[in-house]
Amino acid sequence: MWISRSLEPWVRGLAATRPVVVVTGARQTGKTSLARRLFPEHSYVSLDLPSTAAQAEHDPSTFLGEHPPPVVIDEVQYAPGLLRHVKRVVDQHRGERGQFILTGSQPYALMQGVAESLAGRAAVVAVEGLTYAETVAANPNMPLAERLLRGGFPELHADPSIDVADFMRSYVATYLERDLRSQMRVGSLRDFERFVRAAALRSAQLLNKAELARDVGVSGPTSAEWLSLLERGGIVTLLEPWFSNRGKSLIKTPKLYMRDVGLAAFLMGITTADELTSAPLVGAIWETFICGELRKALAGETGARHLHFWRDRTKEADFLVHAGGAFLLADAKWTEEPETRDAKRLLQICDELPTGVVRRMAIICRTHDRHPLVPGTSPVEAVGPADAAGLVTGEWAG
Q1: Could you read off the pLDDT of 264-290 as tens digits, one per residue?
Q2: Please, where are the H alpha helices in the chain?
Q3: Is the pTM of this model over 0.90?
């Protein structure tokens, strides 16, 4: 079952104007399927097989002779030396578009090679998991809790019979055994797995590197290195706070979020809908989910809209979007029926910003109907997950 992706027209457009398109992102986000679906006339080769990767790395001329463009080359990070030879082929045929579609699961190493070898020749597309709207299109009747547990992994929504816990367990093992070992040396994979689970338990919280290192029992430098590895690998993201020069009392520490809500729930030890809805961490899981929705929505925006959060010593807004001097404020709450008091923090923050710059405020919750929560000159809406993406990309800035 193919699940249509909202970024399909964007990728096609890039291939029509650039000789190389690089599709990157974490494992199992649908990069390979997307490339093969959109470019069926291209030949396909995967460097996942060590012998093929070795040929591409050490005998690239022969490799490209056997796999000439137009071609989809999958898992290209296993042969970084190939990129220089791709550049040579592209330069020989500069008028041809969409010659190479390259995919890779380790963004940092792949992007480093692209920057060095294909600057000015390659367009880069970062693929994340499915959006809420895409999962609804695939399975309209799936309960929300089940949707959260499956996260954004396309395979879990294309085939609902797959056991989520088994999939996640295999995903973590693959990441630890393959991607981790290929990127850096870790003395104990068991310690690193504990570190990943400890990071997941802190999703939607301010990042405290010292506490994270102490709880896992590793040094501060090791903790920082491992956190950077998780960020590069698309497992976690750090949301930066918004602050201006005059806001000296504002918190300047980033918040830690898991990029996939389903993986976050699994690493927290939550595997069933009943466990999810009764878990003390359900609020953090919901906020993690909403952060992902907003981040994915803004990734496709051509305008300069930036996602942050607001926090000072007394109040916090989970999300702040800034665009051209205008602001959107939003909180994520695991409730179906938000109350007026739920908007109190947003209204207080609104009062601290210059008059008129806050254009929209919202409580993003499980409501089935979008409706005004606080009327007046500074209105607050109650918004469900289906409307969260449109909330940040709508016409409100400027």
Answers
A1: 999 999 999 999 999 999 999 999 999
A2: 8-15, 31-38, 50-58, 60-66, 82-92, 107-117, 132-138, 144-150, 154-158, 164-174, 181-183, 189-201, 209-216, 220-232, 261-267, 273-278, 282-299, 344-352, 388-393
A3: yes
